[in-house]
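Why does residue order matter? Because the sequence determines the fold. Keep that principle in mind as you read this record.
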Amino acid sequence: MIERSEIKEVLDGYALDKAIIGVLGSHSALDVCDGANEEGFKTFVIAEKGREKPYTKYFVRRELNGLRKGVVDEYLVLNKFSDMMREDVQAKLRSKNTLFIPNRSFVVYTGVENVEDTFRVPIVGSRDMLRLEERAEEKSYYWFCEKAGIPVPTKYTPEEIDTLVMVKLPHAVMRLERGFFTARSREEFEAKAARLINRKVIKKEELETARIEKYVVGPVFNFDFFYSPLDDELELLGIDWRFESNLDGLARIPKTQELPDELKEPLMIVVGHAASTLRESLLNKVFPIAEKFVKFAKEEYSAGMIGPFCLQTIVDANMDFWVYDIALRIGGGTNIHMYGGHPYGNALFRCNMSSGRRLALEIKRAIAMDAVDKIVT
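Structure:
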């Protein structure tokens, strides 16, 4: 793990009055760039050949006949995202005084080991907490939740399945995505798994480390929180929920319609998000969960939680919240906040406050307070 002292040495060589906000071109990059622009920062996107056009053409900063457009100021297109771990690319980032915003794509496509041990660029966030999102790790976010007293759905082994469960493991090909499926018995678990392995949706060897947990019936709410080390305050910026393919389309097919075999195990690949709000009385149940999260992060990790994180929850018929996933960085659904902000962030700050803008605001304040070392790892 790269020590914070090493990153402090990098910072000491920065001209922070010329700091630029960097991000990998995927996931929530547009929210990060939009928010950076709102607070007066230039942006630098690392893109991958073949998927670079949103950042190099459609949202790049330019002026056309007096009309100003775009949020990406500079970009670098690489053959593969993992090439950003090359020393020449890192040197370029450092030469631009880059403060880098991690997202899930950054960790998945470059490898968590590289993020921890190779990437010597200041990360705005908690570098040593990103590994928690790897479900197969002994210290995953399930371990974190258990230690912190955060409620998660009951875990099962295949032999113990006696109710409807969700089986969670990565997609075999689209590694950022999910190869999830449901089952209500060991026999159904084994039969569905065999079919999905045959369809190359999941890998047999990864089935052994899959998370099997009780299927909680209820709506899904993803809570986009922000913790400020500068103020020692927890903030709720927004709530979102997901569109999943091809599950959402199947939900609109009448039950009486017989499905073809290839649709009987629907995929649950996230393709978009929508904004949501929560019944206000239920906020009293959500904030204590987030407070437990922040408290345990301070106790267990050297820097504690820095900046944005997302608690992904399901609320059951008893109005109890169950955390089924955690993002230890900016969430995947925050693009719904761009420019217009979100009701909770807007109400709190009395202006349009997105997750991306809140990150940029924290950086701006840290520079003014000569406290950037408090928000980077």
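Residues 197 and 203 are 6 Å apart (CA to CA).
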